[in-house]
Structure to design on (202 residues):
């Protein structure tokens, strides 16, 4: 379980094509501290398992399904990535509950800078639109953010200087893909209400 509070901006140092999968080597001095084989690390919001760890780098295997459903498939050597370790039991929940299970991808549509923050408009897949509401939570490339405006096929977020400086959203430009994970609470509520409605109709 993660919180969407990015710990560091890492870097892809190697990509190996395995045919039906890929193996990534990533540099992250913070998240590799104490890392062991089998540990989880979120990479741009995707929960990956540490295969190997040496120095300040770790490797992780990514299966074809993950490459297809997320933006990890476009990563190349030198790409910057958001990294986060799972939250410890009893730690403060600084963002919101994030599973590291990407629901889909969006595209940066527009960036509107101002003096103290920047508004970013992101496309929203139709199947995710019902879970995104104004002032609700959403995870973009592993970053816990608050929705400013929720449209039928887009949403906007406001980014403070710290987020711009310490995450990939300070680097990405219109046309770039981002991973999206909607609030899991919304999905559970939908499922529970759906079962109740179906039961009432019987």
């Amino acid at each position: 379980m993660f919180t969407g509070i990015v710990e560091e901006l890492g870097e892809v140092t190697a990509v190996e094509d395995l045919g039906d999968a890929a193996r990534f080597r990533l540099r992250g001095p913070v998240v590799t501290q104490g890392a062991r084989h089998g540990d989880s690390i979120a990479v741009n919001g995707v929960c990956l398992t540490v295969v190997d760890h040496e120095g300040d780098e770790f490797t992780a295997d990514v299966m074809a399904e993950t490459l297809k459903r997320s933006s990890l498939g476009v990563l190349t050597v030198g790409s910057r990535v958001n990294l986060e370790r799972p939250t410890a039991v009893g730690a403060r929940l600084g963002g919101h509950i994030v599973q590291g299970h990407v629901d889909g991808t969006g595209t940066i549509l527009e960036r509107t800078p101002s003096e103290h923050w920047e508004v970013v408009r992101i496309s929203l897949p139709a199947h995710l639109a019902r879970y995104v509401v104004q002032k609700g939570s959403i995870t973009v490339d592993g970053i816990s953010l608050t929705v400013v405006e929720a449209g039928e096929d887009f949403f906007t977020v406001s980014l403070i200087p710290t987020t711009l400086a310490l995450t990939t959203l300070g680097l990405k430009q219109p046309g770039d893909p981002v991973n999206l994970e909607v609030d899991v609470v919304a999905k559970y509520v939908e499922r529970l209400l759906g079962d109740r409605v179906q039961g009432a109709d019987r």
Q: What stands out?
A: The radius of gyration is 17 Å. The chain has three helices and twelve strands. The first strand starts at residue 8 and ends at 17. The mean pLDDT is 91.
